[in-house]
Amino acid sequence: MSLLSVGHLSVRFKQHHQDLTALFDISFSIQPGERVAVVGESGAGKSVLGYAIANLLPEQGYIACGSVRFGDQELRSLSRREWRKIRGHRIAMIFQDMMMSLNPVLTIGDQMVEAIRSHSKISFHQARQQAIDTLHQVRIRTPEQCFYQYPHQLSGGMRQRVIIAIVLLLKPELIIADEPTTALDVTLQAEILHLLKEICEQHQVALLFISHDFGVISRICERTLVMYAGKIVEQGPTLGIINDPQHPYTQGLINALPQMALPGQPLNQISGNMPSLTARPSGCAFHPRCPYALPECRYLTPDFFYTGVSATACFVVERIQTVNADSEVDHGTDI
Question: Alpha-carbon distance 280 to 275, whole Å?
Fold first, then answer.
């Protein structure tokens, strides 16, 4: 059984006299211990997907249709009280803004003890020792000192380690990480990614890692979902997608990596911008920016077409694969 199963999920936001769709027909699953990335530009719907799964959508947002199953439970049907038993305990979330994740007027220890005792009936001293042990586990060199410090007294890397420690306290089965390394320098970023990967492997914790950077997800995730304008446009093994991207949008994202440009040359870019919720194009939403767009891309929405390494929603890829398959058949006939 899948740990997390999302089926035909659509999310909308109430705005004035109309509802705007942010996610369209999202379907995927995560197995226990699996590390899955969600990648795309800003505005693709990555964070909305994470918030929808964790039931943290803002007041104007709501799930219009679809299913979100965690194990054998349908999360959409849970009450607020039932969610308190799952969020944090079985499903944990790491947010992008570290200072917003920590209470600035409470010490690290107070916040960790509060998290433990909200789910477990243990004494303060037991909770304190558990917190210090977990701070040591995330490689904070002076966990006893850190326990009594305030968030502003810690560096960015230390704060992110503390957040990971708080997440680990309740031994979750799934961690949703929303661009957790964006504000860190390259060295700290590598350390945090290594730490997250190590924790997931040691404790068999599943990870949904939200990012815009293929360079980052290649270090930690086994499988990748590429999102554009609220839809998944390609999905498959991370290394397979990086080495042989099929969708033109995925190709554009990979070509835009700094290492793909020659020294002294401008960085490669995808022309145009991500469409807003109020101006989403018909057909394939990427067609106004796609250099290979076919006439049908402008008015028809492509279904997933399965290739050797990934599943891709693209008429161009489907046509190329079909032509190649026909050529192989004709060649075999001639022989």
Answer: 5
Q: Which residues lie across from 223 on neighbouring strands?
A: 36, 237
Structure tokens at 33: 């211990």
The DSSP 8-state label assigned to residue 266 in this structure reads P
Name, in order, each residue with C-beta under 8 angstroms of 296's C-beta and a sequence gap of 6 or more: 283, 315
* Domains in the chain: ranges and CATH: 4-90+172-327 (3.40.50.300)
Do residues 289 and 271 touch, judged by C-beta distance below 8 A?
Answer: yes
30 and 208 in contact (C-beta within 8 Å)? yes
Q: pTM of the full predicted structure? A: 0.92
How far lies 129's CA from each of 116, 134, 187, in Å?
11, 9, 30
pLDDT of residue 96: 77
Q: What pairing do the DSSP bridges indicate for beta strands 223-228 and 35-39?
A: parallel
Beta partners for 174?
Answer: 91, 206
pLDDT band, very low/low/confident/very high, at 187 (cuts 50, 70, 90): confident
Three-class HEC string of 223-244: EEEEEECCEEEEEEEHHHHHHC
Q: Do you know the residue count of the chain?
A: 335
Phi, psi of 110 (to 5 degrees): -60, -40
Q: What is the spatial distance between Cα 50 and Cα 178, in angstroms, rounded to a whole number?
A: 7
Which pair of tokens denotes residue 251?
Answer: 């190709």
- Spacing of C-alpha 331 from chain mean position: 43
Place of tokens 């192989």: 328
Lowest mean per-residue pLDDT among 8-17, 30-39, 93-102, 279-288 = 93-102
What the block records as the tokens of 143 is 């966990």
Helix intervals (H) in the chain: 46-53, 80-86, 98-101, 108-117, 124-137, 143-147, 156-169, 186-203, 214-217, 238-243, 248-255, 315-334
How much is the pLDDT for 85?
Answer: 85
Helix (H) / strand (E) element for 10: namely strand 4-15
Helices and strands: H and E segment counts in the chain? 12, 12
